[in-house]
Amino acid sequence: MPVPTDRIFDVMYEVDPKGGPEAQAIYAAFKVSLCRLQARLKGSGVMIENVGYRQEYRLVLTQREVNAA
Question: Which one, 1, 11, 34, 42, has the greatest CB density within 10 A?
Answer without folding.
Answer: 34
